[in-house]
Each structure stands twice: as structure tokens, then as C-alpha cells.
Target: ABC transporter domain-containing protein
Amino acid sequence: MPAIETSDLTKRDDGTPAVTDLSLSVREGEVYGFLGPNGAGKSTTIDMLMDYTRPTSGNATVLGIDAQTNASAIHARTGILPDRFGVYSSLTRREHVE
Model:
């Protein structure tokens, strides 16, 4: 079973494509990085995998769990640091991780 799998995953904002027909399979144990210039769709893809935003079409699973029907189960088994994450200046690095 793939750790991450997408099929024709697409996201359009006001008709402008952010991600188009992404079909991806990342096997369990593989290390995969999203690389590309600004606007390439890296953050949008991750946001769709975590159900922070909904795809226009296509589907995605994470750890065998459908990203749009059971996102809370994915969140319970994964960790993510969103690109717009703000830290609390009163906490140490260790306290943020804990």
C-alpha cells in the first residue's frame, strides 16, 4: 500500500490551475520531497493531502485513508509544519516540538 497516492489531483482557483492532473505514488519507507519554484503547487498539493483545501477534481489517500472523507485519521497519524506557521516567542524550540 502506498503511503501517499494521488490520481488526477487538480486544484483551480478562480479558473487558474494551481495543480493539474497530479498522479503520484510514494511507497511506505520512501523519502519524497516537493521541489519547485514558487507557484509550482507544492504547498497546494500538501494542503490537499491534509484536507486543508479541497481539490477541484481527482482524489488522494494518505496511509490508505481517503484525504477528503477521513482527514482527522490522517492528522492523528502524521505531522506537518505549514508554511505559514508562526511560533510563540515565549517558547523554546523544544517546547514547540513537545
Summary: The chain has one domain: 2-97.
